[in-house]
Design goal:
Number of domains: 2
Strand order of the largest sheet: 1-2
Number of strands: 2
Mean pLDDT: 80
Order of helices and strands: HHEHHHHHHHHHHEH
Helix content: over 70%
Oligomer: single chain
Low-confidence stretches: none
Length: about 375
Amino acid sequence: MTTSENLPLEAVLFPEGEHHGGTLDDAIKSYWSKFAKDEKPNILAEGGVAIAKDSGLSDVDELLYCFQFVTAGMSAAFIIANIYMIFKGDLSMVFGLTDMGPPEFLLSSWLVKHWFGSVAGTLFGGHLSKLVPLVEWLYLVYLIGLVLGKLILVNCSSRATDDDERKRWMRVSQIFWDYIPQLTCFSAMRLLYFVTPTVVSTQAYVIVYLVQHRYNLAQNGWHKLRAVMPLVKYIALLAFALLVGLDSFLVKYRMAERFINQEKIDFHGFLGTVIFLTQVLGVVNLNWFVRERLFIFIFGGEDGNLDSDENARIAVWNAILAKKIYTEFGPLRGTIVMLGFDDYDFQSLVLDDANKKDKMREKSMRSTKA
């Protein structure tokens, strides 16, 4: 019998398949008999699955469905709640309205004390517990300003030339798919994302590959030094992310403790607890990580690495898709689609199956009748 250990959740919850009207187990046995003894089993082509030749833009009209409104509404709600709690909590810490106790619980305080002596630890360590929320608050203000600035540029920029049009839609795609997702669960703890083992293994592989390629092309010592600098910067980033990210978690945990340890729950305590939980879960932003892996899968080729040319194609695809979404749905519904766009939408666009021609024929007939 087939176990459910390695099956998707949908397959476990809905075991009845359409394959010959039988169950999932029947389908597995059928495909095993068909492909197991074949030296070149073409399993990936079964069902006619292929990369969309039109880059998926012909299916943009299918991106607006009921659950998109739920996803977009949840994103907006979490952004507002997260910004409110960070402003309230961080400013209370900076101005001394919230007492965290002695700062010796911080990793940075311990490092200052052991590297520069107890005197330096006493002088500077006491301010480190305020430095973490201050840096977090400043970066949040910067991120909000970045989003508002790009929105202003989008609405005020000229559309006279092709270059202006390109910049406009690239800004739109960056706002909704780079910056706004950060605001939904933003905190300084997000720096721990970069030291997560899965992320480190993926990013380190790409960086080492590119550094090795540039090092082999270097013609002198200066060029070799420049070639290895990205690796040095990456190691420094990991050290910084671990130090600040861990201190941020310690500070955030103590701030959230006031909500968690209440004898009776109230709305403010519940909101603070939920936001802290969301920030912790958002350390590894699955949408961010999955989106990055999907782009590598589609655009990275067989070697699984993104060079400058492949990154350029990703940026152009994002910009064209954003333009197509707003052209298809207009400002309000287009914004809902942009906020709710996820990896399932990405897959529905870039992959086609055997019934693609029939689907396009039906769309053409509907548009002709309309």
